[in-house]
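Propose amino acids for all 245 sites.
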């Protein structure tokens, strides 16, 4: 049974360092450092407040995700007034894709602030995007929506959002290939198996079959990544056949 411990706000040297680094990233000094400290606590730490509620970044990640989607949706709604719902949804998905959020978290080197009882190698790639969203959640609780909006404009929209480029960007080759196969009334499925090699990190291999014929292969550290890799290879192998996609 876990012992419930109260998370006490302190003025330790590490807090001062975090406050200084956050000021550089955010452009202002946090009012309540507690929210930001919480945004970087991994669930493996098993930290609890006085009421027994877990203290980690996961709830802030949920909140930050909602704030990010709201700001991006508002931006696209104003920026592309003639676009329909489908177009706006697709563009928002490209901007807030897990891959892009991971890149944003990496650019800010947020992983250096994470408090964890597991090694960095066991986090997985998505930790970078997760804590980026948790940081946005902390900003909202500390400073409100206007500061969240300003942060997202400065860190996401202004440096990275280019509407014409995004229109031609493929966010998911798997979805693209599935859509094409459905339009062409073709059977589309993967055969997935775990590699039994000697690597320390587990690998997944997949075969992409269209109408029972193998079109491509993919291999990665997760089933999802392997499927996406195989789909991308299939897309380029069949590109001359794919129209209006």
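Proposal:
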């Amino acid at each position: 049974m876990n012992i419930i411990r109260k998370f006490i706000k302190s003025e330790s040297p590490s807090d001062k360092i975090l406050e200084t680094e956050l000021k550089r990233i955010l452009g202002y000094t946090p009012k309540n450092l507690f929210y930001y400290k919480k945004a970087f606590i991994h669930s493996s730490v098993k930290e609890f407040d006085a009421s027994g509620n877990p203290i980690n970044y996961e709830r802030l990640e949920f909140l930050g995700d909602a704030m990010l989607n709201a700001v991006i949706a508002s931006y696209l709604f104003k920026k592309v007034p003639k676009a329909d719902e489908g177009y706006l949804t697709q563009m928002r998905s490209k901007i807030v894709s897990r891959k892009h959020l991971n890149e944003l978290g990496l650019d800010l080197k947020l992983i250096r602030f994470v408090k964890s009882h597991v090694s960095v190698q066991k986090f997985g790639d998505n930790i970078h995007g997760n804590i980026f969203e948790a940081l946005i959640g902390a900003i909202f609780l500390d400073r409100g929506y206007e500061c969240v909006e300003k942060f997202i404009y400065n860190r996401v929209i202004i440096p990275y959002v280019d509407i014409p480029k995004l229109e031609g960007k493929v966010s998911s080759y798997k979805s693209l290939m599935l859509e094409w196969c459905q339009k062409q009334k073709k059977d589309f499925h993967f055969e997935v198996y775990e590699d039994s090699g000697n690597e320390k990190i587990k690998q997944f291999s997949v075969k992409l079959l269209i109408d029972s014929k193998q079109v491509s292969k993919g291999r990665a550290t997760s089933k999802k990544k392997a499927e996406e890799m195989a789909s991308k290879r299939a897309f380029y192998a069949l590109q001359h056949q794919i129209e209006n996609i």
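The beta strands are 188-194, 204-210, 213-220. The first strand starts at residue 188 and ends at 194.
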